[in-house]
Amino acid sequence: MSKTKLAAESLTTMTEMIFPNDTNTLGNLMGGNLMRMMDVVGAICAQKHSNRIVVTASVDNVSFKESIPLGSVVTLQAKVTRAFSSSMEVVIDVWAENIPAQERVSTNKAFFTFVAVDQSGRPIDVPQLITETEEEKALYDGALRRRQLRLVLAGRMNPSEAVELRSLFEV
Fold first, then answer.
1. Cα dihedral sign, 61-63-69-73
2. Which of 11, 52, 106, 144 is deepest in the core (most CB within 10 A)?
3. Cα–Cα distance measured from residue 94 to residue 106, given in angstroms and rounded to the nearest whole number
């Protein structure tokens, strides 16, 4: 397996149309259905990077900025932002489109963490990430801070060990 991979190699796009069975009583996509779609596109993206089976380890704050009405075409785009030893942070952007009206709106963005596992379900190393664009570099630089915040919030890291977060708390 390659020791490194380009961020662009993990780019994954998924498109779905919203049907009545996807919606709530107001005729909008149910949040859980959107999260399922995000989990699927994120997992495919992480598998592309790692060439391994992956499991979802965490989901950062998912806020629902815009409702997604029945009949919309939803496009989800995922890309690995950073690879650690066995985990990968994936950013997922979501847009809803009303094709007849030629309207497209950004509805959601979230960071998911996936862990590559072997056939027994044990974590396994993944290739390191190579960034090329300014956006990829910015996402990569922020990923360690987001990871440390996740670990602190989960009680898996002592806040005093979160070196990347210190600047946020210094007065």
1. negative
2. 52
3. 6
